[in-house]
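Aim 2 progress. For Mitochondrial fission protein ELM1, the working sequence is reproduced below.
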Amino acid sequence: MRTIKLPEPPFGSMRTPEIFEAGVYSVIRRAVIIGNGFAGAENQCIGLVRALGLAKQSTFYRVIRPRGGINEWLLWLPVSLHKRVDYIIKRVFGHPRHQMTIGGQKLASFPAENGGTVGLSSVLEPDAKQIATLAHETFDKEGPLLVVASGWDTISLASSIKRLAPHNVFVIQIQHPRTHLNRFDLVVTPQHDYYPLTPQGQLETYQFLRRWITPREPPERHVFLTTGALHQADPAALRVAATTWRAELGPLPKPLLVVNIGGPTRHCRYGADLAKQLAVSLHSVLASCGSLRISFSRRTPNKVTNIILKEFSDHPKVYIWDGEDPNPHLGHLAWADAFVITADSVSMLSEACSTGKPVYVIGAEHCTWKFKAFHKAFQDRGVVRPFEGTEDMTQSWSYPPLNDTAEAATRVRLALAERGWTLRPS
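Predicted C-alpha cells for this construct:
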C-alpha cells in the first residue's frame, strides 16, 4: 500500500490549520445579552459574559415591556401578549400615555420607551427571528452565537431563538425559567430556587398548590446551581475600581465600613422598624470605625432614608452617597474593610461575599420562603454574620470568597466542549 503524505504547511506558519481545530464552525467568538431592565438580572448576564472573555464582542438587547397606567396591573402577562393588550388599549383610548381608573384609583402614566427617562432609550429591542436569522446566516463565517438571558420577560424570547436556530446558537438562561428547562442549552440558577422541593419547603406549601409551584423536579444535568447571584465585580473590575477611587477612598481613616441599604420585597418585608434598628446598631459600632459610608438603592423607601439621614447626615465620620453619578459601588467593594447589607438584596450580598471581607447582614429574620434558605446557606458557609451592633470593627475575619461567576463560566466551557464547541475571544 502506498504511503499517503500530507502536504507540508506553508513556510513560516506556526499555527495549527483550522481543519484540525474543527474550524470556525465550532468556535464561539461573540455573544448576545438579553436583559429585562432590572439591574440585578442584567448584571448577571454581563458578569458571565465578562468571565467568558466575550464582553468586547457582545451585543446588548433589552426586552421592552409597556409601562404606565393599566400596564402596571398586567406585568404577569407574557411580554408578547402584554404588548398586544397595550396596543388595543392605545387604539381605544387614542393616546400612548393612557390613564385608567381601577377601584376608584387613577393609575399614573409613564413613558413606554425602553429605559424611560434614564437615558437608555437607545438600547436595542430584541427580535427572536432576527437574532436567529443572524446566527444562521453568519454561522459559516463567524461561528456559533452565544445567547445569555436573565429574567422572566426574556424566557420566551431566548427559547424562541433556540428553537429557530438550534444548530447555530448556545442559549444560557440565568434564573430559573419555571418550566420546560429543555428549551435551553444551560440553565444557571441559585440553589435556593429549589427550596420548594426541600422537606421544609413542602411543609410550607399547601398540598393543592404544590403542582403550581416550580420547580417540580430536581435539577437536571444541564442545570448549574450557584450559591448566590452572578455579578460583574470580578477581581479585574475591582482592581480598576481601586485605582479609580484611590484619591477619594484611599485616604479615609480605617477601618472603612460600607453600609448598603436596599428595600423591602414580597418575601423580605420591613420598614421604619429595621431602619431604626440599623441606626442604633451603627451608632454602637461607630467608635471602632475609622469612617462609615452609606448607600441607598432605588428601592429604598423614603421612610427608611429619612431615618438614616436624620441620624447620620451631620456625623463627621459618616458620608451618605446622594445617588448622583459617579456611583461609588465598585469603589466601595474594592476599598471597604467590612460591609453591612440589608437582607433583601441577593445581588449586593453576593458581590460583597466575593471579596472575602467581613459581611454583616441585617433583617434576615424578616425574610421568608426561599430567601430564608438563601440566608441560611450563606451563614452555614461562613460568609456572612448577623449585624447586632456589638461588633468591634477593628477585629477582622475572613473566608474563602464566593466565586459563583467564575464557576459558572467554567461550567459553560464544559457544556460547550460536550457539544464540540469552544470559546475563543477575539
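The chain is about 35% helix and 15% strand. This observation will guide construct design in the next reporting period.
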